[in-house]
Amino acid sequence: MLTLASLKEAFKKLFNFVKFYIKLLLGVTSGSIVNSKTTCEPSDAITASSTLIQMNQVIHSEHVNKCSVLDGGQLLKWVDICACLSAERLAGRPCVTVSVDDLHFECEVNIGQVITLKALVNRTFNTSMEVGVKVICGDLDKATGQKTVCDAFMTFVALDTSGKKIRLPQLLCSSSEQNLCYSLASERRKVRISYSKTLKSLLSNYKLNSLLSPSEKTQDDFFQEIVDGEATRVQSVELVLPSHANHHGNTFGGQIMAWMENVASISAGRLLLGVASLRSVDMVYFRGPSTVGDRVVLNSIVNNVFRDSLEVGVRVEAYRYENGFIGSSRHINSAFFTYDIPSDAHVPEYIPEAMDGERRQREAAARRKMRLDRRYILSKRRQDRLSVTWNDVNAVFLCYGNIQYLQRLAAFNDWQTVSTTDTMLLCIREEDDVLSFKATLKMAEKYKAEKIFEILKDPRKRAKWDPIMISCRLVKKVSDEDSLYHSVMHSKAEASALPNDFVLLVSDRRPSSDNEPYRVAIRSVTLDQIPPTDLCSRTEVACAGFMILQEDGICTEVVYYNETNPKLVSYVTCDVAGLSGLYSHVLGCMQNYFNKRSAELK
């Protein structure tokens, strides 16, 4: 007979069972709790292609300035929206902007033109993801002639209903271009992390001329009058409305950047006495969110003026009314905008304001050097200068560029086969008078890819298998993955010719996912401590390196790439006609070296 007590006991057991089962489904059992900052959400892997978002916009009068050119703030807003939509397609949750990498605008967009924005998630990092956005523009009445406006890289995090970050699903790449973006995303992440450290190093270790050089300042046609920096200070207060925010009520990062560019352009216009054209935006990092109902305060001022550009700094803070009083102010972010100075402009001489004006002027000069270094190193037009001076300021850009160029060289699919055997393949590629070689060694034995990588990543071991190598010594270990070497190699031009010496940056990277190749990138750098001598002929390498392809940890192919220059032609001309020349010999020596150590490589 059922009693009230027995019914209560039965319901209690049923309730406990249901409670336990729900916890089990959520992955929360006894002794395990969800992290207070990160929510764990099981999810299947998502393909990169499924995150593609495309936007098209016709430029109307409300989008342009008085010169009929697309407003920079409007463009920043569209870029952020497009990237956010791509991030949310991967996460299935509202996403917020964490940071925006340096942006450089290649061309202006005029009224009546159409811009196309394409966003794609490049990579996920536990709780954050990198989204790449490519912006191009063209005319409605022309099917061709589209120009690249900018390439943007932005970092997002996804939030659950309580505003906590969630762990993101794995990203799967289905094309060589997606694999390239995936690999380079980790390199860009290193640049972001080291940005502030690099700036501090530049300010502390280098003497910077914050103003123009004396020779430039004597040009009477440049400076017409003197302007105090305080005269360029601008403040604007914006109320965050629901239309400015996402699903959670957090202000869109693009909206904040649009407001920032607005006040920055006013500051620049006050100095130039006209409309300023936005050229670039330095890395932006959002320190905290602003929400609907916040009052956003934007302060801008010209930091420094250079020959053909000027920098404007913007600081963003937010506050709310609490119990009838103005609440504490919160620092949202700071950013630095670079504007072009027209060639015919009459620019007054800029004098920094009192207090911290000189500090900001020095920092602006440091950021300019970093911008120029980065563009110089990562420029695609590299045949006119192969070697770049190494220093602590541009080190992170050189390491990033080293891996980037090898990845891009490997990603080309228009290689032409010139010779082949059962185990070797030689291909060439020509572009803009630059000849590149690709030599592939097909592995007949099942050697562990990691073992092959350990041999090829250290050029000092190359003398054991490469008959051309004379010597190699370590100059500086930059990090666990990047080192500087000085190597000497036999010259193949003439028997009596001096040997060639190289100062090389070698960057090695292990795979970050299954079946991704091991990479060893090589490029020349210039070191003051190793000047050219009469004993050797100093030679430079634009881009070279090894890709060690693998399947389940077993090496399938070793591919060597080399982008040549005139001094290296003597090494490779004999190989174009057949694989019986230098590459055949060197790859054969490499294969023999592996075979002799077969037991330790398996």
UniProtKB/TrEMBL annotation:
Keywords: Fatty acid metabolism, Hydrolase, Lipid metabolism, Repeat
Catalyses which reaction(s): butanoyl-CoA + H2O = butanoate + CoA + H(+)
Domain HotDog ACOT-type: 49-162, 230-345
PROSITE patterns (alphabetical): HOTDOG_ACOT (PS51770), START (PS50848)
Domain START residue range list: 415-567
Pathway participation: Lipid metabolism; fatty acid metabolism
The name this protein goes by in its record: Acyl-coenzyme A thioesterase 11
Listed InterPro entries: Cytosol_ACT, HOTDOG_ACOT, HotDog_dom_sf, START-like_dom_sf, START_lipid-bd_dom, Thioestr_dom
Source superkingdom: Eukaryota
Entry-linked Gene3D superfamilies: 3.30.530.20, Hotdog Thioesterase (3.10.129.10)
Lineage, opening ranks: Eukaryota, Metazoa, Chordata, Tunicata, Ascidiacea
